[in-house]
Batch of 2 targets.
Target 1
Amino acid sequence: MYESQRLALKYFTAAIALFGVMIVAGLLAAYYYIDPQILYNVFDFSTAKILHIDVLIIWLLMGFFGAVYWFLPEELGQETVGLGVAKVAFYVLCAAVLVVAGVFIFVQYGTSDEFSLWFINQGRKYVEAPRWAALGITAVVLVFMYNVIGTALKAKKITGVVAVLIVDLVPLFALYLISLPAITNMSVDLYWWWWLVHMWVEATWEVLIGCIMALALMQLLGTSRRIVETWLYIEVALVLGTGILGLGHHYFWIGTPKYWLSIGGLFSAFEPLPLLGMVVHAVYDSGVHRMKATNRPAFYWVMAEAFGNFIGAGVWGFMMTLPQINLFSHGTQWTVSHGHFAFWGAYGCGVIAVVYLALQKSRSVSYMDGTAWKWSFALLNIGLVGMAGALLVSGMAQAFYERAIGGSTLQAFIQAQSSPWFMQGMYARFGFGILFAVGYVILVYNLLTVGRREAVGAAVPAAT
Amino acid sequence: MSDSTVSDPHFWRAGAISTTIIMVAVLGILTVNSLGAIEAGGSHVPPYTVINHKIGYGPALNRDTDAPTIGGEQLLFGKRYTPTEAHALIRRGKLVIQSRACMDCHTFFGNGAYYAPDLTKAWLDPEWKVWKAMTQSKTRGEAMKRFLMHPERYPTWARRMPNLQLSAQEAEAVVAYLKWMSSVDANGFPAHFGHIEKND
Amino acid sequence: MSSVELLKTAGLLGVLVLFGGGYGVLYAVGRLRRQRSWLQGGYACYAVQVLIAGVLVVTSPLAVGWKLLIVFSVFAYLAIPPVTWRYLERTHHEEGEVYDS
């Protein structure tokens, strides 16, 4: 095993641990809707929410880093360059996450000055981490880029996948710098903030997970490089072709000119089309290569990625992307429903697939299967779909009662939040959240134990 | 397109590169235009001194949604702010909003968290009439300021706003921020503000 | 848009894409297994998608431009699965990876 792959396993461990922290914070955040009296003025909803969404970003990023550190040396036939610095960066990142989380939990907020922004809370969604930590994350990303580019240079080799990865890392890094300034004008603040958030999760992250899936498929199914690279380029063209101006679907209501309603609506309406192609491709792979798949959980999680992405981002997104609908749905639980489903389908499933692939190799399992992974797969996916469905009910109720009927005032908000459909959705979401959490516990158990005992890893494949 | 071209990864690589370049270029042009419109004093976003004026919201020519209106003088906290003072006050307001992570309970232009109400048109909310009485305030600004400084004294409903230790100056800055923000033309967001749907 | 129209239109838009996905999946399974029944299921899904698009075009309060977008999308949904499949088969064939059911 390459040293880089040992570092990858560390990143995966941290990622899966933070996945658990995200779930705990999420369950707490969900519970406030059911019992708003808990922990009033001691630990409020905002703190739980910050932990939930910031840890989401960090665990997924750690998963991506782990995946690249895992695949890179084999892809280039060369140990990753700069691993000493990379290992330090990993521990620094973990320590920073702990400190930032500790400050969020125990200090929570400061006064309205630069000190608060530098050391306590920047208060911009997903990038609440204080500036010192944001700079730290920037440094870690730079180390990561150095590792990738340095390895390609040393190997004097660059594959198509690695080339796409390197080119993608440049905007990924540059966009993160938007987390640093404090902009007075909310319209301008949100204009740039959406460059960071949208161009991360609907552009550069899509390309990044595309590269990771390309590397994973070559290993999982033995697909030829030429095929994988062709499809990666097609995916990049379609995703960026629709997603770059699809950014406009965040510019409907922030004070920007009206032409964004047409441009944003049009391009984001096209965004599901490449995802349909991905689903067809996934079915093709499942049939054609099924005989060659030696890692059943990884294979199933890759399939979940394609379908989850199409339904969570495509179907759910299309429901609410036209401006005539979005006027009512924007900033409601409908958005939350879409966000949960899309993040899971597009990224969560992919990271889990890669972890199983890495474990197969690190534990030398010729054929990875078992029972526990099926339970966690079922519970996590049923839990997630259940949450998204419950939030959809609440969100539609909110759009209906608060916005369409009630006129979007404070009273309308209160009435909608108290309505039976809304509240039932909140209860159901919490219930499915518990299911999801149980699925997570089984996932952890499975990841810790799979392949370690003879019986589990020794199942004979149906055919080779 | 010949068979060999379509099967060649380099063809698709060229496609990916050219598509990206074109889209980024268009986005760049639109960004320059949009930033001009949304800077304070631009076509969609009033200057910060709008806090010295009465802000309304109603039907507008050639629009299928309501739009903000800026009327005559209506001073905030009895003071007429110069452009520099207004900018400093609004800047402070934004620092309060960020340092207290308001966006992690509330939404601004619909962005943020969904536990607490959207604040885009909070300055114009009809509820403040009631709150003026509840907080024993003469003006809307005063009512908002009192609420923000001691939200625990004025329970809203089952969900209550926590006390975030706002000083009087910080509370005034936030109120100014919300007044300015309500004057931004958000293309009709939030939907049907202030209008209740009639049942046919 | 009224409150009821809102939910109806949004629901139909989501279901439009869902049936497009259903068509894609069933079409792909049908080509994989070389069984007409799956392909027919796929075409049935597509027929439902066309029906939903028709309902949206005729009854929804969307402006003309958006209705045209829906019509165009429905044509794109028709083409994407067979074009994708054909290209998948060709690229794999060229690499010597042929599927024998």
Target 2
Amino acid sequence: MTSTISVTGLTRRYRNQTALDDVSVEIEENTITGLLGRNGAGKSTFMRIVTAQEFAGSGTVRVFGEDPMENDGVLRRTVFVREDQQFPDFKVRHAIRAASWFHPNWDARFADSLLTDFELPRDRAIKRLSRGMRSALSITIGLAARAELTLLDEPYAGLDAVARQLFYDRLLADYTEHPRTILLSTHLVDEVADLLERVVMFDRGRVLLDAAADDVRGGGATISGPVTAVEDFVAGRRVLHRRSIGSRTSVTVSDYLDAADRARAAALHLKLEPLSLQQLLVHTSGGPADLEATA
Amino acid sequence: MTTLVKVTRYHLLDRLQYVVLPGGITLFSFLVNLTVFKMFPPPDGDSYSGGLVTLYIWLFIPATLTVTKSLPFGFALGLSRRVYYLGTLLLMVGLSTAYALIITALQAIERATGGWGTSLHFFRIPWIFDGAPFQTWLTSFVVLALGFVYGLWFGLVHRRWQVVGLLLFIAAQVVVLLGAAMIVTGAGLWGKVGEFASTLNVYDLTAVLAAVTVVLAVGGFATMRRVTV
Amino acid sequence: MDPAEVTVLDEGTPLFTQIAEQVAGDIADGTLAEGDRVPSTNELAAFHRINPATAAKGINMLIDDGVLEKRRGIGMFVTTGARERLLEGRRKQFAEQYLDPMLIEAQRLGIDMGTLISLIRGGTA
């Protein structure tokens, strides 16, 4: 496995807060990796340090095998798009032009089709774009750059559901045709769950989970029904959460339930709801345990 | 296109900031001066307008704003701090050269037309912009570059240390100048300083300003090295 | 998301398994005949809006099971005997997946074996 990004023992502290705490992670080349976690968990700081925008406190960071700090060779092969990206006093077409100069793999036709798809007016000042359109512009640049390492930090601020789906579709289609290493940080986990090959989950500056998405997806379920039947079913399993009302109870387990399990649950008249990736991560991170709120 | 040239072109995509505003406002100032002097010719013939300083101010200001406006997107596109800074200096060289040429050319025209027909000396400043065209260009170039680099450093200090840092930066300069003045006064050297100054010609002054410009550029780079957005 | 896709790919099984099961299902019920070309992993990924690597994992499962074979440069094809193999596997699971739940439910409702058998004979299908 070739690592595009190799981070060991990365720690970064600000005056009164530890943004990253002894983070060690390998990002494999030509994968779509999701950086997941709550706001302030450290995802953005991680991406900023990897792209040399922010300085590491301690630890080593290697991108394409080298230290990215002030490294033109490495930086030329990356593009980093963040939510609320600040632009100079440009029009849309200026930003596109500038981006085309600095990325060797830039595809002008692809950029053009994305601008059309997102209905971005090429001659409008970026200052006068809505938040969603600014995100669309950032996404256009991030995708059309075809950079070997593409980092997208919550790039969909202000985009409605239709535009987001457009983004996911374009991302997936272009990735399939031009594989590269993509790091996508998001808190809208369920929307992108199927796009991910790997997930890295941050919580309070630490990496809680670093696994193949396939291993994490499809794990866990909530079993509901009469108390005795449910408890019988979940005996010996890893219980994440319990909720009861009267003689009924809902128990969430993190185990993977196979066909036999599901048949048994059906026979016992127990309701079985698979956990979404988002719910699973909420439980793993010790966040608010109310499933209904996250459904 | 080498990377540094790309950075320069990147800055210039915002034509307003570096071309339209400085050029436009200076032009406006010139026209105002011309109109005023045409309408109210001063009694003693030649008049010198200090309006040219407008151009210098209007390069200083965009320079301070450069970092705030252009660096975030520059980072997103994968520019290192070194490349960004050197590319910005290249921009400065280009702008200073161009504006200095324009000043020189306009000064020649001014001379030829006898002060635009009203003995107005906008582009000619006694002793500083008074001599050979090459000297006008050189001194203009250095002064413009100085203004730009100084503004750039201001912008960087603000970016890195915010308003507090900026105030300390200004205070430090004041302290240094006052300190130097106090030393000179204490050692009773003002007479010597005066003597020395009178032996300087405009080329020497230009050289001193050029040296100051280099110092400011190095200082700016040192500040740049740990800047984040 | 398209509602049709939600029902298809929202079970509690891993995504790559679902892909494999879908293709296997098509083979088992004859939609995909032996020797037919199966959609490529990229085509499957695009259709289901999932990562190509996940689709590839599902397809590879079927290749490992001998249900599909890869012909270099051309694509993936259903192997001969694949349908029979799949049906046999499903027959083995039939009792566990369908009969056991039925028996448990019958017992719960107090339906004795005799009634059950005549119900099966008479049927409702």
